[in-house]
Amino acid sequence: MVKLILRNQEFEVKAGMALLDALKKSNIVPEAVIATRNGEMITEDEILKDGDVIKLVAVISGG
Amino acid sequence: MKCKKCGGKASVNMRQHNMALCKDDFLAWVPEQTERFIKKYRMFTHEEKILVAVSGGKDSLSLWDILARLGYQADGLYLGLGIDGGIDYSHESQRLTEKFAQDHNLKLHVVDVEKEYGHSIPVLANISHRGRGKPCAVCGLAKRHEMNRIARDLGYDVLATGHNLDDEAAVLFGNTLQWSSEYLIRQGPVLPSSDGLARKVKPLCRFYEREMTAYALARGIEYIYEECPFAEGSKQIFYKEALNQLENVRPGTKMTFYVKFLDAKLKGDLFQEKTIEQVNLHACPECGQATSAPGLCSFCRLIEKARAEV
Q: To the nearest whole angstrom, how far is the Cα of A4 from the nearest Cα of chain B?
């Protein structure tokens, strides 16, 4: 399994899918996050591997 | 996905530009583009003194970083607003801003609103009864006033803020929904200087918020990730989320919305230039800054009221 972490929320998806599909499956708008794996930014076509922990950095700020 | 410049592994994909870049090429591309837009919109030159309004967030710290990398004379201004919200928000953002200035050997001015005027922003908001329990209106008013004041008093030619394209598109969206022509006519990358007001520029206005986040991460800039405690449920965030939904389906929607607006405004397709001339501004008798009605400006009225209640 692959774990996606966005602020205090966690999502789990199956390994082998692309990041873009994982975000869609988790109802996360890709435009609203930057994904990192082991501290490195990754693009939406990246295939997620079993055991991956993807930290999603929210991009929206303001008020 | 491959980097469009070097063919290596890409780190950032920008669908609106149909371009992905590796970390190194992205870190070179952002300042190049910033320089391009500084020149395109005639924001400032290398001879001018720039005051960068820095909040401790990703955009303003990245802007300061980019201007320093480009060799501009850019000093920082941090405004202490006295917002806690259970997360020590103002103290933490000040700490991160001071750390950035120290690490990069940059000059930072710190102004504490409570020390200057006797009350923090949340207290001023309570006293004024503006904003229906939220201090955002008073906060915006105080920030604009203090940024103008410091820029003028310390002799800066220009005041730069870290507004990105998403910020601008959200404001444009809100003002368009209400056809607020007075606000629409004034929106742009440069607000010229006038009596009592410094020239204001937004060098990041053509970058998506996502790109600025990527820049801050790639540069290792430590910024305040937590949102302002009062921003939750704000209209601006709601508009940004709505625009991101559109962007997700149609990449480039936000960019087109903002850039085509600027083009149309420039060509006079939306509003006539005379609309600007018809706006009569007056000098506030207390602080000298421009205000739309005769007498004290909104900020000086706020402070007068706060002092009367002490």
A: 18
Q: What total of structural domains would you count in chain A? A: 1
B167 contact residues in A (CB cutoff 8 A): 62
Residue B71 has what DSSP assignment?
T
CATH number for B42-272 (one of 3.30.420.10, 3.40.50.620, 3.90.1150.10, 2.60.40.1580): it is 3.40.50.620
Quote the ipTM score: 0.96
Cα–Cα distance, A11 to A44 (Å, whole number): 17
- Domain ranges for chain B, please list them: 42-272
Q: Could you give the CA distance from residue B277 to residue B4 in angstroms, rounded to a whole number?
A: 46
Range of the domain at A25: 2-58
Model confidence pLDDT, tens digit, residues A6-58: 999 999 999 999 999 999 999 999 999 999 999 999 999 999 999 999 999 99
Partner residue facing B245 (CB), from A29, A36, A58: A29
Length of chain A: 63
DSSP state at residue B15: G
Average pLDDT for chain B: 92
B170 touches chain A (CB under 8 A): yes
pLDDT, one tens digit per residue, over B281-310 is 888 999 989 888 899 999 999 999 888 876
Q: Does B136 touch chain A (CB under 8 A)?
A: yes
From the CB of residue B238, how many other CB atoms can be counted at a distance below 10 Å?
Answer: 13
Regarding pTM above 0.80, the answer is yes
Joined tokens for residue B217 = 């991460």
- State the CATH number of the domain containing residue A16: 3.10.20.30
Instruction: Answer yes or no: is A7 within a domain.
Output: yes
> Does residue A63 fall inside a structural domain?
no
Compute CA distances A15 → A2, A46, B205, whole Å: 6, 11, 38
Query: Alpha-carbon distance B111 to B94, whole Å?
Result: 10
Could you tell me if B166 lies within 8 Å of chain A, comparing CB atoms? yes
**Contact across the interface for B13 and A61, Cβ inside 8 Å:** no
